[in-house]
Specification:
By secondary structure, the protein is an alpha/beta fold. It contains eight helices and six strands. Helices cover 53% and strands 15% of the residues. β1 and β2 form a beta hairpin.
């Protein structure tokens, strides 16, 4: 350290001591800083866990409602998916991600990285672990308990997002075999509707209808009758 740097350090030290003596700066113990950092870390962990829960729930809701499979219908399916996507939850995820980034920036190893870089890392970690969490029985367990006990907040929350009821998308279970270009379909709410197939109905590759088969149907519904625009077998729903 050269003479100039020593003089600067002495001046800084003197200025700090003068401010402490004047009362403009209040000294804090080591315990204060340790406690503050511990509280910061705890807050970050809690926010991260909340982000994981919400992200995994979005995936769970999309799969349970079968909106997840809409892209197999091309642009028509994507339009319905976008219109019924849980954007409220996505907005909450964005808010929590920004809050997490602000808190994480208090640490040098995050602060010294470009903003976009650290945000992308957070998003990647949250989404990746969100998929892992979705593969656990967590949400299924919570939802079943909520339905059994009719929990006042949890049940409506899960119902609203797992049963969005899109206007032209009708996932259901075939009640009988096809006959005269029509068959019966049981929807998620146990309602039985009739599905009519015309020469204009688009059918997925290898499509087949059998009793108990899970189907994804696009089409207008009126008076309990769906005029099928397109039909697909639901993924992983092969004939038993």
């Amino acid at each position: 350290m050269n003479t100039l740097e020593k003089i600067k350090n002495i001046d800084i030290k003197k200025a700090v001591l003068d401010k402490i003596k004047s009362g403009s700066i209040k000294p804090h113990s080591k315990f204060y800083f340790t406690s503050r950092n511990a509280l910061l870390v705890l807050t970050i962990v809690i926010i991260f866990l909340v982000l994981l829960f919400i992200t995994s729930f979005v995936i769970f809701a999309l799969k349970t409602s079968e909106l997840w499979f809409l892209p197999v219908f091309g642009m028509r399916g994507i339009e319905i998916l976008v219109a019924n996507f849980p954007w409220v939850l996505v907005f909450i995820i964005i808010i929590f991600t920004v809050f997490l980034e602000v808190l994480a920036n208090r640490f040098n190893f995050v602060f010294l990285r470009p903003l976009l870089y650290s945000v992308l890392i957070i998003v990647f970690i949250v989404v990746t672990f969100g998929f892992f969490l979705n593969d656990t029985p967590l949400h299924s367990f919570i939802y079943e308990k909520a339905k059994q006990n009719n929990l006042p907040v949890v049940k409506p929350f899960y119902d609203d997002f797992t049963r969005p009821n899109p206007e032209d998308f009708h996932p259901g279970t075939a009640v009988d075999e096809i006959k005269d270009n029509s068959f019966s379909l049981e929807l998620a709410d146990k309602t039985i509707v009739f599905v009519k197939i015309s020469k204009n109905t688009k059918m997925g590759k290898g499509f087949e209808i059998y009793k108990g088969g899970r189907l994804l149907i696009l089409g207008k519904i009126k008076d309990g009758i769906i005029e099928a625009e397109a039909i697909q077998n639901a993924p992983n729903s092969g004939r038993p």
